[in-house]
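Table S5 (text form). Sequence records supplied for joint modeling of the two-component complex.
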Amino acid sequence: MTPHHTAVVLAAALSLTAAPALAHKLKVFAAADGAEVSGYAYFSGGDRAQGAALTVTGPDGTVLFTGATAADGTFRFTAARRVDHTLTVDGGDGHQAQATLPAADLPPGLPGGEGNEASAAPAPAAVFTPAPAPSAEMQAMIEAAVARQVRPLREQLDAYQDQVRWHDVAGGIGTIIGLAGLAFGLTRGRGRRS
Amino acid sequence: MAHIPDGVLSMPVLAAGIAVSVAGCAYGLKRLHPDRIPQVGMLSAVFFVASLVHFPVGPSSVHLILNGLTGVALGWAAFPAILVALLLQAVLFGFGGLVVLGVNIMNMAVPAVLCGLAFRRVRRAFPGDTRVAVAAAGAAGAGGVLLTGLAVAASLALSGREFLTAAHLVVLTHLPVLVIEGAFTAAAVGLVLRVKPAVLDDPAPHSDEDEGEGAP
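The corresponding structure-token record, covering 410 residues in total, follows.
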């Protein structure tokens, strides 16, 4: 029984160190391709969050869209207005994450904030171009292509922000050792004085 | 799950969490004998790192908590140990919010202390019986996770969520964690009992109130 126990502890310890050290936190990623907004909810280790409730609200708090993530954690909806979209994903078990899709990522063709089309549509780019202004379809195509190419980069950045880095772990353990040492020293000093 | 992020819970729950955590930490520190400080630091570090070991379960993702082990080893001192570890997890890893830190400490430290006290009681009832002690440690390790899951579900319910749905989600996804932690705690305590049983004796078996028999 004796070597048995040691083996169990060793095996447990090994399996712990062998497991990937990943963070545990719900995140949501969203990007717009034209008026089509797509994204996914995931735990920062990379596992997708299935069936999590998605609520999209505008800057004034109005609910623009509600739904749930699919089996692979993805969602998709079409933006109707060119306003900041706040996406809230709720796993129901206390996990919740938020992300904001800025109005600037949506095509200028959509109606703006208060349903006031005059305030939106900032299309001054054409004024400065000496060449004939590109057609609307052309602009849409360029935007779609750029969005498609930039998306993996943004996903990578988003995931990178959440990676647990080993120096954070080392720093945390160091802090704990330091605190314990401090507490030890303080109590010792007091004991000697009294 | 065990780490609730900011913006989910209601004010009264947050206030209650802070009150319980502050009181528990004060009591834990008051009872803490200086000789045990290194042990508290070590378990705090173990608790801190345990949360990085995670696995996907169904639609969610869970990680080790090890609050049962912390409670068995530290008793009331689990409160300060868990406070430090959770604060660092929140700051360094973004696990759980800072405003809800009080609730998170309460949800993990109260089960830890309860399991620790139950373990001590069983050990005192069966002095010298290693097998019973190991079984009790396993139960404490599993019970810590179960009680934490229920406490999280209760926190969510008191903030206006459906208790049964939340409890269902939280407890079901934590069944694997419960099994692993029960086995791990039993193995760890079994090892300690053979190598250095005095470590677990601390709040002196003969007098429960005053654990220190004079500083060296």
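Note: Residues 72 and 116 of chain B are 4 Å apart (CA to CA).
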